[in-house]
Amino acid sequence: MKYKRKLSLSVVFLFVFYLAAVTSDLESDRRALLAVRNSVRGRPLLWNMSASSPCNWHGVHCDAGRVTALRLPGSGLFGSLPIGGIGNLTQLKTLSLRFNSLSGPIPSDFSNLVLLRYLYLQGNAFSGEIPSLLFTLPSIIRINLGENKFSGRIPDNVNSATRLVTLYLERNQLSGPIPEITLPLQQFNVSSNQLNGSIPSSLSSWPRTAFEGNTLCGKPLDTCEAESPNGGDAGGPNTPPEKKDSDKLSAGAIVGIVIGCVVGLLLLLLILFCLCRKRKKEENVPSRNVEAPVAAATSSAAIPKETVVVVPPAKATGSESGAVNKDLTFFVKSFGEFDLDGLLKASAEVLGKGTVGSSYKASFEHGLVVAVKRLRDVVVPEKEFRERLHVLGSMSHANLVTLIAYYFSRDEKLLVFEYMSKGSLSAILHGIE
């Protein structure tokens, strides 16, 4: 009987000791996240500081009482990552800070992240050399450091990351040769850097686009001078090979090309004629639902030619559209406070047009970026519309874009979503963040 009592007390003691250890570790994770919050500036991380557990904070995911994932993509963050911040999240498996404005070097205490599998830091302004410690992390699978300001050489110990399948380093300022990489990579890109020398034979099977924008030579690019059969007469790595007689087009091929061009031109003219006829017919039919005109929001000197900047439709007055609700209905306010007037005044960019309406990227002056879906030809009673939107707004999942708010009136219906810059369903399904 005494033996059973002692055993029970031992079990209770071990359980209490385990709870105390878990609580201590979670408190350590909480302090690490607060260190990040105090160092990173810009749009504030609206975390509930009074909450005892950080597991309910935006972008933070926990498993077994520890922080295992930190996802804050496209959140308007800027500043540098501190030592003693993310490096102290020792159970972290996924880190996604892509498409912000973070700068400075990668902290040296990232070496503590021995369980880290996925590292997504692309689309920032990180600088300095790429730390070789990243390739010593035993669990690392994907590294994406593209579109930053990293300089120096690619670390020679890339092959130490034996589980690595993705390495994206494009659009940086890296220099020197590419090291011999023998890993069975599935995704690789070092384009648009300042790399030079010959491409290692282990990487020769990758397409040209993985290496373009450097001064490299060898397969799949042009043959290096030392490899040319003509020796010193071969010219530089970008010198095209001498044309052979077999490369010349025959007279029959030239005639075929000319005929094909003529036929293609005639087809193009026929298509243009049909489109003009169709457009003329549509202009003669009175339109029942005309979207408000859009206008450029910024000067052409500040915007690439391929970008179309627009202003969302202005609010209709009561006399024009009947009863109008002037307020947005919010589901989530952690992304920042704004109202309908602020949304309509924000600069916007067309993302695409679908069967039910157009999508815009709306950027506020304080850094907040959201996606706005303007519904078109959607005729539904207000009660049913709001009921369906509340069902959609109540959904929460790591793979669902957050519905922040919506606006309803008789002639205007807007949905405001979390903006995912350069994201796609395909990229998320394949783990490419």
Helices and strands in order, then pairings?
Blueprint: H1 2-39, E1 41-42, E2 60-63, E3 66-71, E4 77-80, E5 94-96, E6 101-104, E7 118-120, E8 125-129, E9 142-144, E10 149-152, E11 166-168, E12 173-176, E13 187-189, E14 194-198, E15 215-217, H2 251-284, E16 309-310, H3 318-321, E17 329-330, H4 340-345, E18 347-354, E19 357-363, E20 369-375, H5 382-393, E21 403-408, E22 413-418, H6 425-429
Parallel strand pairs: 3-5, 4-6, 5-7, 6-8, 7-9, 8-10, 9-11, 10-12, 11-13, 12-14, 14-15
Antiparallel strand pairs: 1-4, 2-3, 16-18, 17-21, 18-19, 19-20, 20-22, 21-22
Quick gist of this model?
The protein is an alpha/beta fold and 433 residues long. The protein has two domains: 9-234, Leucine-rich repeat, LRR (right-handed beta-alpha superhelix) (Alpha-Beta Horseshoe), CATH 3.80.10; 303-429, Phosphorylase Kinase, domain 1. Helix content is 23%, strand content 22%.
Order of helices and strands: HEEEEEEEEEEEEEEEHEHEHEEEHEEH
- With strands numbered from the N-terminus, the spatial order across the biggest sheet is 1-4-6-8-10-12-14-15
Q: What is the domain total for the residues? A: 2
Q: Roughly how many Å is the radius of gyration?
A: 29 Å
Low-confidence stretches: 9-22, 228-246, 285-325
Tally the helices. Answer: 6
Distance between the termini: 59 Å
- Proportion in helices: 10-25%
Largest sheet: 8 strands, mixed
* Chain-averaged pLDDT: 77
CATH homologous superfamily caption of the largest domain = Ribonuclease Inhibitor
Give the number of DSSP strands. Answer: 22
Shape: flat
Mind telling me which CATH architecture of the largest domain this is?
A: Alpha-Beta Horseshoe
Going by helix content, strand content and strand pairing, the class is alpha/beta
